[in-house]
Design a protein that fits this description.
Blueprint: H1 3-10, H2 14-19, E1 26-29, H3 37-48, E2 55-59, H4 64-68, E3 79-83, H5 88-99, E4 107-108, H6 116-123, E5 128-133, E6 141-143, H7 151-157, E7 160-165, E8 173-174, E9 177-179, E10 185-188, H8 203-214, E11 221-223, H9 228-236, E12 244-250, H10 252-259, E13 275-280, H11 284-290, E14 296-298, H12 301-304, H13 307-311, E15 316-320, E16 324-326, E17 331-332, E18 335-336, E19 339-340, H14 347-356, E20 361-365, E21 369-370, E22 375-376, E23 378-379, E24 395-398, E25 401-404, H15 410-420, H16 423-435
Parallel strand pairs: 1-2, 1-5, 2-3, 3-4, 5-7, 7-10, 8-14, 11-12, 11-15, 12-13, 13-14, 15-20, 16-23, 20-24
Antiparallel strand pairs: 6-9, 16-17, 18-19, 21-22, 24-25
Helix pairs in contact: 8-9, 9-10, 15-16
Keywords: Transferase
Protein name: 4-hydroxybutyrate CoA-transferase
Family: Belongs to the acetyl-CoA hydrolase/transferase family.
């Protein structure tokens, strides 16, 4: 059977595609932009009708398609979210559950992003994987498009794989191919991908971005997160040359560096000449830039986020943020007010990988305060778990300067971090540091 005939033989309608999904089964979803809208709506309709119950759904990063379908509060119980990275949709479900007699509706699965493929392979048996892919080429290959991460591995480990083919999903190079023979069922849809528009950078973002840019040499290899601050860093790098990109997340800010010629990947040791990533989130322009572009490649997260892989490039610059940092340099990047707020993600992977790189620098950057200056992000003690240990923290940047914590005593660390805190809390932090015998 040729590829076209094989495609037609597995092409089905939405009702038939989800008819095989059973109560009390385990389903994995593609991450973020690869969550398949038509399949999710069809499955939500079955749950709404009471046809299925107790379905465990495993995923990272719920974006618009998932939020509007399976993550409706009315479906909780029939759909049991097992989330590996909490976001606004899960926080809203938790709030509704608390108001509804403290009902438990969301189940968080602690994890390390780089280990997530192994987590699925060895510890979370998946009955069915649902994912959106780019259209098939003449050789019978789809691509995983915006999302390689754990998606490509779980797609092959699941007992059944159902794909939603969407012409708006970019065709991406690298280790992103999926052959039609590997697929059990195919549906087709035509939905624009969700677009993320971070809030504009403010003066503090630009001040911090400028300080970070001074730490970046020409020829460095970048990892950035998403948001106003990382975009401000990318803007501040406009005058640099020969930068490389090896990043967990590809963002519009990084794409601007590629398009402008600032990032040409010419000095990378591995994947030379290529910008590599494991998932992408951004706007329509970025998705169009990704499509059929051989200068960009995606790879599974166990490759991209492996600290050893990261360290093989020289001068890796990793820029991440945190919710709070204590006076010894330990970071809580996932808890707020005693509750899970996000997850550890790949922060520690890149903190360790960047510092292990020859000439590399791991940077934790953040505004010194939150809540309109009411809450200091530099604290005496963390209010949540340690995401990045104090022994791994390298460079810290706030609007008040830069501190290199490597080689400092606990007293010197506390002194340096108090200088990076908002002036109105420095006296209080100093007193607390004395109480903790740091000063």
């Amino acid at each position: 059977m040729n590829n076209e005939a094989l495609y037609r033989s597995r092409l089905t309608n939405l009702a038939d595609a989800v008819a095989s999904l059973q109560s009390d089964s385990s389903i994995a979803l593609g991450m973020a932009m690869s969550q398949p809208p038509a399949l999710l709506e069809a499955l939500a309709a079955r749950a709404q009708a009471g046809d299925i119950d107790g379905v465990k759904v495993y995923y990272f990063h719920a974006e618009a398609f998932l939020r509007k379908s399976l993550l409706r509060y009315s479906l909780m119980g029939r759909i049991v979210p097992h989330c590996m990275f909490l976001g606004a949709p899960e926080r809203e479900l938790i709030r509704l559950g608390e108001a509804d007699g403290n009902r438990k509706v969301v189940y968080f699965v602690p994890n390390s992003f780089s280990q997530s493929p192994r987590l699925f392979a060895e510890h979370i048996p998946v009955d069915t994987m649902l994912v959106m892919v780019s259209p098939m080429d003449r050789n019978g290959y789809f691509t995983f498009g915006t999302n390689n991460d754990y998606t490509s591995g779980v797609a092959r480990a699941a007992r059944r794989l159902i794909v939603e083919v969407n012409p708006n999903m970019p065709r991406v190079f690298g280790d992103s191919l999926l052959h039609v023979s590997e697929v059990d069922a195919i549906v087709e849809s035509d939905h624009p991908l969700p677009e993320l528009t971070p809030k504009p950078a403010d003066d503090l973002d630009r001040r911090i971005g400028a300080q970070i840019a001074e730490l970046v040499p020409d020829g460095a290899c970048l990892q950035m997160g998403i948001g106003a601050l990382p975009n401000a860093v990318c803007s501040a790098l406009a005058g640099h040359r020969h930068l490389g990109i090896h990043t967990e997340l590809l963002t519009p800010g990084l794409v601007e560096l590629i398009e402008s010629g600032v990032a040409d990947n010419s000095r990378k040791t591995i994947n030379r000449g290529k910008s590599v990533f494991t998932f992408a989130m951004g706007d329509r322009h970025m998705y169009e830039f990704l499509n059929d572009n051989p200068a960009l490649e995606s790879y599974p997260v166990h490759y991209i986020n492996d600290p050893y892989t990261i360290s093989r490039n020289d001068n890796v610059i990793s820029v991440n943020s945190t919710i709070e940092m204590d006076l010894t340099g330990a970071c809580n990047s996932e808890h707020v007010n005693g509750h899970q707020y996000s997850a550890s993600g790949g922060q520690l992977d890149f903190v360790r990988g960047a510092y292990a790189s020859r000439g590399g620098k791991s940077i934790i950057a953040f505004h010194s305060t939150a809540g309109k200056d009411r809450v200091s992000k530099i604290v005496a003690r963390l209010a949540g778990p340690v995401t990045t240990p104090r022994t791994d923290t390298h460079l810290v940047v706030t609007e008040y300067g830069v501190a290199n914590l490597k080689g400092l005593s606990s007293t010197e660390r506390a002194t340096a971090l108090i200088r990076l805190a908002h002036p109105e809390v420095r006296e209080s932090l100093t007193e607390q540091a004395r109480t903790l015998h740091l000063l």
